[in-house]
Amino acid sequence: MRQTFVVEFFCPIFGQHEKTLYLCASKNFADRRKMIRDIWFSIPLWLQAVSLGLVFVWLIQLILILCVRMRPLWQARRDRLGKVRTADALPSISVVVYAHNQAESLQDNLPQLMACDYPDFEVIVVDDGSSDETEDVLMQMDQRYSYFFHTTMADRVSTVSRRKLAMLLGVKAAHNDVVLMTQAQCVPKSSAWLRSIGRLFADGVDAVIGPVVFEDRLGLVNRFCQWDLFDRVLSSMGLTLAVKTFGGWSSNMAFRKEVFFANKNYAIQHHLDLQPGEDDLFLTDITRGKNVTVACSADAVVVNRQSHVGYVWKQERRRRAFTERYTFVLPRLVKHLDSLTRWLVVASSLTVAVAAGLMMSWWVMGAALLLLVLHALCYVLVPYNVAKMLDVHRHRISPLVCSLLTPLVNIYFRIKSRIISKQFYVGRI
Q1: What are 311-363's pLDDT values in tens digits?
Q2: What is the pLDDT of residue 41?
Q3: Which among 267, 293, 321 is the end of a domain?
Q4: At what angle do helices 309-323 and 398-419 cross, to 10 degrees?
């Protein structure tokens, strides 16, 4: 009865495939296996090869999604279950803020930073030779808070990276055991920011990376920049937890002061002639096994309130594309494999679906489209749940469109960084 209903219902659609539908409805396993074999060998050899390639790259994508992109979710779950090692006592923290002609940002963001709920911390602002009212703002803050300090870099310093020199001055001025780097245009999303970072400095942990997002703004360009930063932060967090340290963000990065000075190559001259790399290259230098971890909680998020989002995103993209060649090979290869297989899944799925449709192999076409839909759902649901966990903007449509554009953007900035590579050097000491 059931077989008859299936055949009669689908015959107007599938025509000559009445026998196939009957075998599909049959409970005989041998009949079903014969049906699948007949369908498979009825399609051309080249389409069989493309179909097998689709399954292969789809499985690679599934492994990367489960083991890398979902790793922050697994880490957050382990933290809730008490399986993440935490410090027995909260360490004292020195927050080093880099500023350059950002008096308005300092005026708005410093009070929120100073109001963090933490037992022992100080804030040190390193002024990179600002020509606006930055000095006046810093003097006001100096009078209001006893745990606030600031210093100014000389304008004549031009033979080394100014950001790295500012980092060096801030670390030298720090009185506490842990140094937490951020920037003037950034503000913590929660007053528990320092607690969420400091609690992860257990024995054997030398650095902690926190998530950074752009402030939520309307507009296509702003949306793309927000998604791209979030996607790269998600990828860096996953790669750091699953493979090896791959990048950090100077807007939200903490490390032990003793590790900074123990690594004399960096503090004195290593990569100091490169403009960028004060975050990702530094973390690469100090990485020893699993001594770098990631803060996967909403309290650890830092929001970048930069008004010119597109310009800042473009500059940061160029810097990252240039310094990526100095990072570890394994996570870099995993990242490139993710970009390549992402495109191959889409291209091979559409190729198999169109070719199978023209040959009226409906089951092959349906299987290809099903794999494509499942892949798209994974790329939407995983970032959505991570954003939900971090309590930031939950991208719904952006992953479907931007995830295909991101590999092309990566190639563009990689080529661009090589063309203008001389601009990233500031001379030798």
Answers
A1: 888 888 888 888 888 888 888 899 889 888 888 988 888 888 888 788 777 77
A2: 58
A3: 321
A4: 60
Whole-Å CA distances, 297 to 72, 74, 117, 257, 307 = 9, 12, 16, 24, 25
Contact 400, 387 (CB under 8 A): no
- In angstroms, rounded to a whole number, what is the distance separating the alpha carbons of residues 401 and 387? 17
Give the start-end residues of each E strand in 114-270: 121-127, 148-152, 178-183, 186-188, 207-209, 212-214, 253-256
Decide if 239 is inside a domain: yes
Residue 367 in any domain: the answer is no
How many Å apart are CA 392 and CA 272, to the nearest integer?
34
- Tell which residue, 66, 64, 69, 71, has the closest CA to residue 345: 64
Same-domain pairing of 124 and 252: yes
* 350 in any annotated domain: no
Structure tokens at 192: 């528990």
Report pLDDT for 11: 41
In this structure, the answer to whether residues 134 and 30 fall within a common structural domain is no
- pLDDT at residue number 56: 92
DSSP 94: E
Which residue in 305, 312, 196, 304 sits closest to 254, CA to CA?
196
Domain that holds residue 1: 1-34
Alpha-carbon distances of 336 from 56, 71, 117, 313, 333, rounded to whole Å? 17, 18, 40, 20, 5
* CA 130 – CA 139 distance, rounded (Å): 14
Q: How many domains does the chain have?
A: 2
Distance CA 231, CA 399 (A): 9
